[in-house]
Design a protein that fits this description.
By secondary structure, the protein is an all-alpha fold. Helix content is about 85%, strand content about 0%. The protein is globular and about 50 Å long.
């Protein structure tokens, strides 16, 4: 029992760091600044629900998709490690490749759901974790991490006012460093190091 609890806590922290809602929070705040509070909360809820559906599909069917495309797990780990490393560098260095439209509700939901919450990093992690630990631990960790993300987005304005943009940016950069380290770890595992 204790071993399963430790595995769940470890998986939750791992998934939460990859999802990193604090890194998405500044974008979410800027995309929703012209919305009413009710619309902001609805966008937060919808984004997390969509992210959860996409993540669940890849958790359950990810290995099948890899088999169908004839991609072995080592290659996927290396590719995922590169993606995680790049996402981490993007967060640490502060550049973004998306061209978002301010105030467009569907754009907000789409951008936050995927690729911000359920992007290549999380998809890779879920497929790797499910192949190593089975489905239950990664699924529960994902649900808890998405629930925590929903709380962050639902309270976005309050969090921004409490912490300030600078503090949020600092947390994002620290999480970005963890992503780079995870990427290196994935690459090493894929190479058999």
């Amino acid at each position: 029992m204790m071993e399963q609890l430790v595995a769940l806590v470890s998986a939750f922290v791992y998934v939460f760091v990859i999802i990193d809602p604090l890194a998405s929070l500044p974008m979410f705040i800027s995309l929703t600044e012209k919305m009413k509070e009710r619309e902001i909360r609805k966008s937060a809820r919808d984004a997390v629900i969509i992210a959860g559906i996409v993540a669940t599909v890849f958790l359950i069917g990810g290995t099948f998709i890899l088999d169908l495309m004839k991609i072995d797990m080592s290659s996927f780990r290396i590719a995922g490690g590169i993606v995680l490393g790049l996402l981490g560098l993007e967060t640490v260095l502060g550049f973004h490749g998306s061209n978002e439209k301010n105030g467009d509700k569907s754009a907000v939901v789409t951008l936050i759901a995927t690729p911000m919450l359920t992007g290549p990093g999380l998809i890779t992690a879920l497929i790797v974790m499910s192949s190593e630990e089975g489905m239950i631990v990664p699924f529960v960790a994902m649900v808890l991490a998405l629930l925590a993300s929903w709380i962050v987005f639902d309270r976005a304005v309050s969090i921004r006012n409490l912490l300030g943009r600078r503090t949020i940016d600092i947390f994002s950069k620290v999480f970005g460093l963890f992503l780079v380290a995870m990427g290196v770890s994935f690459i090493k595992a894929g190479l058999g190091a």
